[in-house]
Amino acid sequence: MKETALAYAKINLSLDIVSKMPDGYHNLKTIMQTVSLADEVTIECNPGEGITVDSGLPYIPDDERNIAAKAAMAFYEFTGITGYRTHIKIIKNIPVCAGLGGGSTDGACVLTLLDKIFETMLGRQKLEALGNKIGSDVPFSITGGTKLAEGKGELLTDLPPMPHCYSVICKPLFSCSTPELFKLVKCEKIRARPDTEGIIKALGENNLGDIARRMYNVFEDILPRGKHEIAEIKSTLLDNNALGAIMTGSGSAVFGLFDNIDDAQKAYGQLNRSYRDCFLTETFN
After folding, report:
1. Structure confidence at residue 62 (pLDDT)
2. Contacts of 236 (CB under 8 A, 6+ apart)
3. Which residues lie closer than 8 Å to 231 by C-beta, 6 or more apart?
4. Which of 7, 18, 49, 95 is the most buried (most CB within 10 A)?
């Protein structure tokens, strides 16, 4: 039994850290949006035992540390299905440690593919609950689209769909460690925050300009010194008529939103000359 699907990346239109919870995790409030950049995930199940992962990248674990393997183990434990050797092949297009949800979307794709292969018909609610056991962005990645995520990312609210637009995504040479950035967070010292409610209102009005103008990511103010490339990429995007540009997730990728393909292509061409991980994508629901 074999199935293949695309696992789509996400961008954060806003990201706010509201408070620190008693368990040490942080209470987030973020609006996430699916974009067309995607990994390709193939699962093959045959009689036998064991789960293997092949991404073709030496720095990505191929054992139970991989979020795709964790997703498969969670699926089999929940459904009680046994007796299958499961091989997961991932063609990676989404850069790792970029804030684009690459690992999370791969895990979500594994859950939905296994649900299809074994015809378990778990449905969105159960798949999202399973995803929550694996990683904070996995529940969103089950269905994607445009959503408000709160708590650790598991509390999802469907929002009006994002107006179609183009997004140029660029990752600088360095990566950001999410755990290390969270260690630097002091909620009481956060002064600038995104206008989350304003973005939700603009989504309801299908107003792309208002959405872009209100975007903000508090992690940008927490970055250690020496990460000047973030500001440089944002400036390049804005100089090429991006409606707005911010870092996504905990970084280090930056994206800009464009209402026409010509400006997007111009920005992409300029950044692509200097950065290896640069992508011209579009939003969809």
Report:
1. 80
2. 267, 270, 271
3. none
4. 7
